[in-house]
Amino acid sequence: MNFPDTLFSPPLLWAATGLMLLLLSWAAWRVPWRTLPHGAVSAWSAACVLLAMMWLVKAGLQPGLSFHLLGAVIFTLLMGPALALLALALVLLLQVVAGQLDWLAVGLNFCVTLLPAVAVTTLALRLAQRYLPAHLFVYVFVNAFLAGGLSLIVAAASGMALLWLLGVYDGPYLLDNALPFYFLLSWSEAFTSGLVLSIMVVYRPQWVSSFDDARYLAR
């Protein structure tokens, strides 16, 4: 996470940027802009600023190996995958403005870490809705807590795989020095996601686009 552009070749960086722009164009087309609830939009905008500030609190071993919460599960469950991709891209741009990220590396960070996290969250939600009981505990524990931890592990594994395949770091170094920290951080991601979604579905369920009272509370 937080890959600097000095570690990668310009063709790879530009290719990732192009892919990001294509995905964001698709996401912008998928978002039902006219039907978005105004109160939720204001809260989601505040969440983008808050997450950008949280990303400033991070630690790192080497360039390209930094540790901070992602928040991708919270954004995906609150906004839906399409709007979550747009919001997370905005958070990356705020990191550029704050001088914490190279602008040419925005696309690579988006495609390698944030996109897999949103995909894992969306897949977990779809599988839970299809195969698990429609219960509030299932939503919070599976879709928020477990998916939160898993999304960070998948994002970290994707980033480490890229660093290993390109020869930036050796595989044993990544497994011994980076993976244990990401595993520990995944518990923080899981706890934070579960806590935030639990509060939201109790006090502001109308802001959680993936939560339906009729589905989870009818019985």
TrEMBL record:
Its main location: membrane. InterPro entries: CbiM/NikMN. It comes from the Bacteria. It is found in: Cell membrane. Keywords: Cell membrane, Membrane, Transmembrane, Transmembrane helix, Transport. Gene3D superfamilies: 1.10.1760.20. This is Energy-coupling factor ABC transporter permease. Signal peptide: none annotated. It is a multi-pass membrane protein. The chain crosses the membrane at residues 12-29, 35-57, 69-97, 103-124, 136-169, 181-203.
